[in-house]
Amino acid sequence: MSESAAMMAFARDLFSGMGMVEVRRFFSEAGLYAGSVMFGLIADGRIYLKTDEALRAEMAAAGGSPWLFAPPRGPGAGVLQETSYMSLPSASEDDPEEACAWGRRALAVAERARNAGPKRRRRDRA
């Protein structure tokens, strides 16, 4: 499902308390970014946030559910797989303060994951 401009604007407004949050399209979804860090996404008309084990458990207890994704090709093509993104609990969709609190925690998780990953080597351009 291609995410609508209205849903993207809603997400931008919902997380405006976090500062400059951008919504960028990718494929049929949209990513939520704070600077260059993607901390969430919009898929199937819902907002999902990046989680680690602890945040995932808290979001599940608050009513969140995992984003399931079926890769279009390669190993596991067409088979639904659970991702590290959890849906924003529905009670938070109408509460910008609560949504931003979840969003800040998701951003911290995304930043830790980004910093913990392998360093990318830049290729020398000839």
Summarize the structure.
The protein is α+β, with helices and mostly antiparallel strands and 126 residues long. 32% of the residues lie in helices and 28% in strands. The mean pLDDT is 90.
Protein described:
- The chain has three helices and six strands, in the order αββββαββα.
- It is an alpha+beta fold and 126 residues long.
- The protein has a six-stranded antiparallel beta sheet.
- A hairpin with a 2-residue loop joins strand 1 (21-26) and strand 2.
- The longest helix has 21 residues, at 96-116.
Which structural traits does this protein have?
3 helices; six-stranded antiparallel β-sheet; 126 residues; single chain; alpha+beta; 28% strand
Strands ordered across the widest β-sheet: 1-2-3-4-6-5
Shape: globular
Helix content: 25-40%
Q: Which consecutive residue ranges, at least 5 long each, have pLDDT under 50?
A: none
Instruction: Determine the mean pLDDT.
Output: 90
Please describe the topology of this protein:
Blueprint: H1 5-14, E1 21-26, E2 29-34, E3 37-43, E4 46-50, H2 53-61, E5 66-69, E6 81-87, H3 96-116
Antiparallel strand pairs: 1-2, 2-3, 3-4, 4-6, 5-6
